[in-house]
Design brief:
The chain is mainly α. The chain is built from seven helices and no strands.
């Protein structure tokens, strides 16, 4: 009985020490024109449809939603990166790859394959971001 009690107490202590702080990657806004993105709690379905169409036409050569490919998978990307970082990477990949530590790490992880600038507008990048929020 004592062993069970000690096990329960130990488990509670370990789980109580879990780091609940936000990932430092979510604080990184990247480098580029986007300084702040206001995200509504609700998903904008019209924007999602636009973003999905743009993603399919411009991004799927390198990115899949559910698995790594030439570039990283996009599922749960909004849980790992800030909205500003995502949009700046879409809009300003050259400078991001030169100056942003996370982008440089991704470049190394994906064998030095650079992300191409698709010359999208801020509105198109925002639509892609909204689509990515649904993954």
């Amino acid at each position: 009985m004592k062993i069970v009690i000690l096990f329960v107490i130990g488990t509670l202590l370990i789980s109580g020490c879990k780091n609940t702080q936000k990932s430092p990657n979510l604080d990184n806004k990247g480098i580029g024109p986007i300084k702040e993105v206001i995200i509504a709690e609700r998903i904008d379905k019209t924007l999602v449809k636009q973003g999905e169409a743009i993603f399919k036409s411009k991004c799927t050569t390198c990115h899949h939603t559910d698995k790594d490919f030439v570039g990283p998978k996009m599922a749960q990307i909004t849980e790992k990166r800030s909205p500003e970082w995502i949009m700046n990477m879409i809009l300003n990949p050259e400078e991001m790859l030169q100056k942003d530590a996370i982008a440089q790490e991704l470049l190394r992880d994906y064998n030095g394959v650079t992300m191409s600038n698709q010359h999208l507008t801020q509105e198109e990048a925002r639509a892609i971001l909204e689509f990515l929020r649904t993954l």
